[in-house]
């Protein structure tokens, strides 16, 4: 049998908001969604990770749906693919699993319909699917990102001078973003939004100048979403206290929750994670690093999986 060319996509997880940077700030993490795909005569999705087993194995799979819709956006017909998907990203835990799936779907359409999308076009499409540029921008570009959306224009800056070690506390229960957005208010008073925006600006400034104490204070001072979402994450205060006692400088809800993002000064992650493991029970402590690459794609000769 002739070896076939297989398209490979690897997309990092992400943690959005970092506290006050609601729908705008995010960091890419070294947990990955990986897929391999080639043209076939029908859609066939082989799911290789236990967490994915309940997802559709044909074109109804969300990744395929994103690919099909992206292709039709550009008036192209997406060919059926045979593919394998595996993922280390916990689902519906605030680690950007849906954004990673969207990025993978857009890359499939780009490759198999020859769309030749620019990075900016990809960013606009993934933001449209996800509704905000934070997780999707981090998954696409890697690093610590600031995204903004004005109308259909999406802008994104990667802040490669910011460094910290991220530790994620991941509970067993899922929390769908949809539910976690439902508890947010429709409107925010002008004076409160001025303060909330100042807190977000101060967080970024303090991370840039490595003023860890101030950064931690700002992560806790968020007024946009954490005060409303805390009722959905009753263990938040307890985990926060234990993470700070263990040496983290800042703690925030990861994305829409329920996972909790704890930041340590660069180089302290291992030590702080070890201490946290000793005092936090019933939840996974993930000692992670920032992914600085973002989504990567490549071609390879067919492997054993396909
Ligand atoms: N690899 C995947 N394949 C297919 N569908 C997926 C995949 N990953 C995520 N999804 C879909 O996305 C849903 C989770 O999205 P949701 O926005 O609720 O959480 P999240 O993206 O993990 O967290 P957050 O947006 O807070 O970071 C899953 O229940 C599933 O429907
Ligand atoms: N910024 C988003 C991330 C989750 O999609 C939120 O907090 O709802």
UniProtKB/TrEMBL annotation:
Residues 61-143 form the GHMP kinase N-terminal domain. Its EC number is 2.7.1.39. It catalyses: L-homoserine + ATP = O-phospho-L-homoserine + ADP + H(+). Belongs to the GHMP kinase family. Homoserine kinase subfamily. GO terms for cellular component: cytoplasm. The keyword Lyase does not apply. It comes from Mesobacillus subterraneus. The lineage of its organism: Bacteria, Bacillati, Bacillota, Bacilli, Bacillales. This is Homoserine kinase. PROSITE patterns: GHMP_KINASES_ATP. GO terms for biological process: threonine biosynthetic process. ATP binds at residues 90-100. NCBIfam families: thrB. Residues 205-278 form the GHMP kinase C-terminal domain. GO terms for molecular function: ATP binding; homoserine kinase activity. Catalyzes the ATP-dependent phosphorylation of L-homoserine to L-homoserine phosphate. InterPro entries: GHMP_kinase_C_dom (IPR013750), GHMP_kinase_C_sf (IPR036554), GHMP_kinase_N_dom (IPR006204), GHMP_knse_ATP-bd_CS (IPR006203), Homoserine_kinase (IPR000870), Ribosomal_Su5_D2-typ_SF (IPR020568), Ribsml_uS5_D2-typ_fold_subgr (IPR014721). Pathway: Amino-acid biosynthesis; L-threonine biosynthesis; L-threonine from L-aspartate: step 4/5. It holds the Pfam family GHMP_kinases_N. It is found in: Cytoplasm. Keywords: Amino-acid biosynthesis, ATP-binding, Cytoplasm, Kinase, Nucleotide-binding, Threonine biosynthesis, Transferase.
């Amino acid at each position: 049998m002739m070896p076939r060319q297989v398209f490979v996509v690897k997309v990092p997880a992400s943690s959005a908001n970092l506290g006050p940077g609601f729908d705008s700030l995010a960091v890419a993490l070294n947990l990955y969604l990986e897929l391999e795909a080639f043209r076939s005569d029908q859609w066939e999705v082989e799911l290789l990770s236990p967490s994915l087993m309940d997802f559709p194995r044909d074109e109804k799979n969300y990744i395929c749906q994103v690919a099909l819709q992206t292709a039709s956006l550009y008036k192209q017909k997406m060919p059926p693919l045979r593919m394998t998907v595996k993922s280390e990203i916990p689902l519906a835990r605030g680690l950007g699993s849906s954004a990673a799936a969207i990025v993978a779907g857009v890359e499939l359409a780009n490759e198999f319909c020859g769309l030749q999308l620019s990075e900016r076009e990809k960013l606009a499409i993934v933001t449209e699917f996800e509704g905000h540029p934070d997780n999707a921008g981090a998954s696409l570009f890697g690093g610590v990102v600031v995204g903004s959306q004005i109308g259909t224009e999406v802008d994104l800056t990667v802040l490669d001078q910011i460094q910290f070690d991220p530790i994620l506390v991941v509970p067993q229960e899922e929390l769908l973003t949809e539910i976690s957005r439902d508890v947010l208010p429709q409107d925010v008073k002008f004076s409160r939004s001025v303060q909330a925006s100042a807190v977000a600006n101060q967080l970024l400034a303090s991370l840039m100048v490595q003023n860890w104490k101030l950064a931690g204070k700002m992560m806790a001072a968020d007024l946009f979403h954490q005060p409303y979402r805390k009722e959905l994450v009753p263990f938040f205060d307890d985990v926060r206290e234990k993470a700070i006692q263990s040496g983290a400088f800042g703690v925030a809800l990861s994305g829409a929750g329920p996972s909790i993002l704890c930041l340590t000064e660069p180089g302290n992650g291992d030590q702080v994670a070890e201490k946290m493991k000793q005092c936090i029970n019933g939840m996974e402590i993930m000692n992670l690093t920032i992914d600085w690459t973002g989504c990567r794609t490549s071609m390879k000769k067919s492997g054993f999986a396909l």
